[in-house]
Amino acid sequence: MVNFVGEFRFTRFFFPYFIHSFSTSIKFMTFKKSMLKAAVLFAGTSLCAIPALADVNTKPFTVPEISSWKGGEGHFIPTPSTRIVTNGKDQQANRIALMLGQDYTTLTGTSIPVELGTKSKKGDITLQIKKDAKANAESYSIAVTPNGVTVTAPTEQGLYWATRTLLQMSELSEDLSLPVGRIADQPEFAIRGFMIDCGRKYIPMEYLYALVDAMAYYKMNTLHVHLNDNGFKYYFDDDWDKTQAAFRMESNNFPELTARDGSYTKDEFRKFIEDASQKGVEIIPEIDFPAHSLSFTRLKPEIASTGRNGRDHLDINKPETHEFLETLLEEYIGGENPVFAGPRFHIGTDEYQGDSLTMEQFRGFTDRYIKFTEKHGKKPAIWGSLTHAKGQTPVKSEGVLMYGWSNGYANPRDMIKQGYRMVSIPDGYVYIVPNAGYYYDYLNNPFLYEKWTPANIGGTVFTGDTIKQIEGGMFAVWNDHPNNGITVKDIHHRVMHSLPTMAAKTWSADKVTVPFAEFDSLSHKLSEAPGLNYLARYGQEPTVVFEQAVVTPGSSMPIAEIGYPYTIEFDIEGAEEAKGTKLFESPYAIFWLSDPISGNLAFSREDHLNTFRQDVRPGEKLHVKITGTNKNTTLYVNDKLVDDMNVRWVSYNGGKNKMAQVRTLFFPLQNAGNFNSKITNLKVSNF
Predict the structure, then answer these.
(1) Which among 21, 78, 423, 523 has the fewest CB atoms less than 10 Å away?
(2) Residue 18 has pLDDT above 70, yes or no
(3) Does residue 640 lie in a domain region?
């Protein structure tokens, strides 16, 4: 069994010894386990036997932490006869049971058969939904006895979360046993989520699915997808015509609006929303306007603002602007089978600039699109901007979800007084902008775990009844710097760094009890999700992942890639190679033996080619070592440092602005290239 280091464990035993005689009363004695020895007390004619000693199980470690635990003695150990069963009458319970069976096999390599519509017997895991309108919709209970497990929830959602708890407990158990005890669990906040900026950087649908899997495993239930945005003009020669801008959805009404460097079809996005909902994750799509709208004004220059704001602002007073927006939005939230099939739609409304008159107009604009969203049957969500946009024009608050991201843009106390429901997403605490030099590159997990809850919006802390208006908390990745070399793998590394912490704090808030150091250590022992290893990590401790004496051209390796930190070593005897000769390749990257331009050792991923100052010449014998971290990729030849591909800062706008260029690599290994050189003694290590 896993040793839960640092958890306080105690056992209290009460040993009553009844000594019977005509003149003796009952005596009661309490002993700690460490003090107990065999003892027999005599008085008169009776002897009392000492009961057997046993440990009471401590609360098992899970992420997020279980709300309530009552430990028993012993363990439930699955046997070959163990089944996952339901009564068969509830199709929702049946579906969750099948998912549990599949995920259990994926996670543990051991199968438990699923039988629907059968009576449970000794040794079974029983799933059941017992509807209770008064219960928290995401709550559940688990009763573990030596003879079986019973899982009960008022909803399908709660039952699914319960199975995530069972899977995590099993994953951290060396023998797959479960501690006997009773769990009662429910979240402190309804929204527990993450936002990803797909506008400035295209995020493949494959990765959005991976995010849903990871979030669901940690009971995070909301993924916000930011679908349009643009870069900063000063990184593009101060020229709006050159500045990056993208709208990531297929559009029939405006076909030329759809980004050419990556987009989502309507059908795949509709399916994505449905598939995510089956795992308890709501997708909140966002189309951001009237700022961050360069992709719209590039298509329709006549709707661009002509004021000091620039072309990424819409002219909110023109009828043509409203005609365009309403035609666009109806394409996704209108009709009987809308593309954005979830309950919520986010209309942006952040960072619009202007004078006092413009702000009054902006308030009216915001109110208009809140009501437009509601007219189409969606619950509206907005970025908080109404402190920044001071004025008298009313903006509807009832039923509106406001993201509290900047207290200067939206004072959270004022917004709550006005009736808005809030999501806590304070920029100074939970914004990641990879390698930008501002906000966070990686979030400060110790601070978040020990000091922050969703009741803290940018330093304004809510207590009492006002907390009821805070729906929950989220964190975010903003890709402010397009083409800076940050890959989707780099993004995922940052997301998974903090996803367990944010899951814990949005579920349990200030009720976490495990010290952070212990939480951090144990959470790293959990998978990203059943069957998900997007970080390409192998082994809990530093180890050699695999070795191969000879790498045959065109052969396949046992793993597709390895994520950082890693070391790759091999010997090479050079031969004549054409430019463009690959050494190793995966779906995400290529390591070149002779790159297509210079003929040097190099690597490429996501359209970025990074070339080392080293070639391999015919007849040359070299020992090559490549190390990779989340900051750099380094090449050693014959144990000497040749090149360090670290973070490089590039100046723009006459040196006024700088952007980090990142040259990291998840090392590709899936397929060997068709090379002429001889590669031997390949060793792949996870350190």
Answers:
(1) 21
(2) no
(3) yes
Q: With a threshold of 0.85, does the pTM exceed it?
A: yes
Please tell me whether residue 100 adopts helix, strand or coil conformation.
helix
**CA 55 – CA 57 distance, rounded (Å):** 6
Judge whether 290 lies within some domain: yes
- Rounded to whole angstroms, the Cα distance separating 602 from 125 reads 52
Last residue of a domain, one of 158, 185, 212: 185
116-152 pLDDT tens trace? 999 999 999 999 999 999 999 999 999 999 999 999 9
Q: Are residues 450 and 473 in the same domain?
A: yes
Identify the pLDDT of residue 309.
Answer: 83
The number of distinct structural domains making up the chain is 4
d(Cα 577, Cα 554) in Å, to the nearest integer?
A: 15
| End-to-end alpha carbon distance in the chain | 26
Q: Which residues pair with 461 in a beta bridge?
A: 456
Residues 58-104: tens digit of each pLDDT? 999 999 999 999 999 999 999 999 999 999 999 999 999 999 999 99
Q: What is the pLDDT of residues 437-493, one digit of tens each?
A: 999 999 999 999 999 999 999 999 999 999 999 999 999 999 999 999 999 999 999
440 falls within a domain = yes
User: What range does the domain containing 7 cover?
Assistant: 1-53
Which residues, in sequence order, are CB contacts of 445 under 8 Å at separation 6+?
A: 497, 498, 501, 516, 520
Which helix (H) or strand (E) segment is 550 a member of?
A: strand 544-551
Q: Are residues 511 and 622 in the same domain?
A: no
CB 86 within 8 A of CB 116: yes
Give a yes or no: residue 531 inside a domain: no
CATH number of domain containing 619: 2.60.120.200
The alpha-carbon radius of gyration of the chain (Å, integer) is: 29
* 564-575 per-position pLDDT tens digit: 999 999 999 999
Domain identity same for 40 and 110: no
Residue that has been written with the tokens 């669901």 in this structure: 216
